[in-house]
Write a structure and sequence with these properties.
Order of helices and strands: HHHH
Number of strands: 0
Largest sheet: none
Structural class: mainly alpha
Shape: globular
Number of domains: 1
Helix content: over 70%
Number of helices: 4
Length: 133
């Protein structure tokens, strides 16, 4: 399945950049995030399977974002950033908020995770829009 005019180099670049930004973000906020997520640092384990799953999900996210940006008509940094913000507000932040409330987590986890996904959405949108069609 392909979105008309999707730039697959841009999609790959957006996914890689977003994944790296997330790695840096959570490395920087790791102890705070683990406390908010109720994860004992001794039990925290990173595996290749988790990293591959995370990257594949970001690749799918970038592909869908490219389709959304393309539907705005003009593919530009501006439409990419607007798409990123709209998708974040409408789907990412709301979904996380609901999930965290039902799972009994505090607002601090929601804030940490939501800021991460806002950064991801803006990076993806900006890169995809910047590459153009």
């Amino acid at each position: 399945m392909s979105f008309g005019g999707a730039n697959y180099i841009a999609i790959l670049a957006a996914a890689v950049a977003a994944y790296l930004a997330g790695a840096i973000y959570y490395y920087w906020l790791g102890p705070v995030w683990m406390k908010a997520a109720r994860i004992d640092p001794k039990d925290a384990k990173m595996s290749l399977q988790l990293m591959v799953t995370g990257f594949l999900c970001e690749l799918i996210m970038a592909w869908v974002m490219a389709g959304v940006i393309g539907h705005f008509g003009e593919v530009s940094v501006k439409t990419g950033l607007i798409s990123g913000i709209l998708l974040w507000i409408g789907f990412i932040a709301t979904t996380q908020t609901v999930n965290h409330r039902y799972q009994g987590f505090g607002w601090n986890l929601t804030l940490i995770d939501s800021i991460h996904w806002l950064i991801v959405a803006l990076i993806m949108g900006g890169i995809i829009g910047g590459f153009g069609v």
